[in-house]
Design brief:
The protein contains four helices and 21 strands. By secondary structure, the protein is mainly β. The chain is globular, with a radius of gyration of 22 Å.
């Protein structure tokens, strides 16, 4: 209790310091995101007393942003206050495709504080960014808490392992920061070479990566090699256009921790392979369509092992999310008018033939605000009872269905 109070006091002091320093500063801003969704749960959950027929969730994310640039360095600070309220304590904090903000393990310093923790309401503060950047000779340094992304930043990534978003996650305006040191330098005429050291709460999980980014034959290429969470890792990502078709993909090779990992399939007992490849093309009338194929050795090959796959380390640690081994991802989007954009994403599991559809309507409400209205619709065999337990008939068929909205406002 004393530690929590100390963290709370420290967080408050830091917030007040930033506010005081920023009142007269031009590089001070506030970002507010309000999220609401309504979910309808499978009937089996209610029969077993695990969830009501339907539930709603409200979330308010308010971030203070301060940036200062002076001769020789740049400082960035972002602190967020998140308030959540649930209609039922049975669904409080339960993972949701739209509103779950999974905490990353790559925060060596505890800076979060629970200001309110009740059965249906929580208020949490967190420092999501606190970094300083400077140059020395041929090297650029970036030190402190900062967002880091790997890969092509499409709907699903297999390379982004430090603080990834869930597939279909809509509140991606700001990525959670991690504690890291980055050193960059020029490689050749167009490339960039970078060393990244990321510190985790448990020192055994620390990460170190070497990353090369360059352009070859009109394609942006990223190569990544290193170690994280005691696993050796190699990955590569690419994206470029040929004959007006945008081609992209990622491939990642993970060392298996055989004393912990359940071997569900793959080409090797010592390494697991994940990859995704796809393309996008404009088809006229402001429509753009894309399709991709995803494979992951960590995933299940049949319905009976979906739960087993979901309980292995890659899923528990939060850098892998989908439980099956093979998927097709389809995307279509269209600009309805200069202020309105329609986006439709679908994930189809080739293992159990279930699907999840996520239409999103994005509306620009002003220069400093926008609104997203979304829903998620499932297809596939649902849940069944086996004694006092729930058995999944398919991955997406076990999901709730729902509708929601995100309103963003920037000051």
């Amino acid at each position: 209790m004393i530690k929590i109070r100390r963290v709370t006091i420290l967080t408050g002091v830091l917030l007040l310091t930033v506010i005081a320093q920023s009142v007269l500063a031009a590089d001070f801003s506030i970002a507010c995101r309000q999220i609401a969704n309504l979910s309808r749960w499978p009937a089996v959950y209610k029969e077993l007393g695990l969830a009501p027929d339907s539930s709603w969730q409200l979330q308010s994310l308010n971030r203070l942003i301060f940036s200062e640039r002076k001769a020789g360095y740049r400082f960035k600070f972002e602190a967020e206050l998140a308030a959540s309220h649930y209609s039922s304590e049975k669904v409080a904090g339960r993972s949701n495709w739209q509103t779950d903000r999974r905490k990353t393990g790559f925060k060596a310093f505890k800076t979060d504080a629970r200001l309110l923790d009740r059965s249906r309401s929580q208020i949490v503060s967190e420092i999501e960014r606190c970094e300083i950047s400077f140059s020395s000779g041929k090297f650029d340094f970036q030190i402190g808490r900062q967002p880091i992304s790997f890969g092509t930043s499409h709907y699903i990534s297999v390379m982004d392992v430090l603080a990834p978003f869930q597939p279909g996650y809509l509140d991606s305006s700001y990525k959670p920061g991690i504690d890291a040191i980055r050193v960059r330098t020029i490689s050749g005429t167009t490339g960039e070479l970078e060393l990244i050291f990321a510190a985790a709460a448990d020192a055994h999980d620390n990460a170190v990566f070497a990353r090369l980014r360059d352009t070859f034959g009109g394609f942006d290429l990223e190569v990544l090699a290193g170690r994280f969470r005691e696993r050796k890792f190699f990955g590569a990502g690419w994206e470029g256009e040929k004959r007006k078709i945008n081609l992209w993909g990622e491939i990642a090779l993970f060392e298996r921790l055989n004393q912990f990992d359940r071997h569900l399939g793959g080409f090797s007992n010592d390494y697991a392979l994940s990859w995704i490849a796809g393309f996008e093309k404009d088809t006229g009338n402001d429509w753009r369509h894309g399709i991709a194929f995803l494979h992951q050795d960590f995933g299940a090959r049949d319905v009976d092992t979906l739960a087993v796959a979901g309980s292995t380390l890659p899923y528990l640690q939060g850098w892998t999310h989908l439980s099956a081994s093979q998927y097709v991802i389809v995307n279509s989007n269209r600009e309805l008018n200069p202020l309105t954009h329609l986006n439709m994403n679908a994930m189809i599991s080739l293992v159990d033939k279930s699907a999840l559809l996520q239409p999103v309507l994005n509306i620009s409400t002003s220069d400093e605000s926008d609104l997203s209205v979304f829903c998620w619709i499932k297809a596939g065999p649902g849940l069944a009872r086996a004694g006092g337990q729930v058995v999944a008939g398919s991955e997406f068929g076990s999901f709730p269905v729902g509708i929601g909205a995100i309103f963003r406002r920037y000051f």
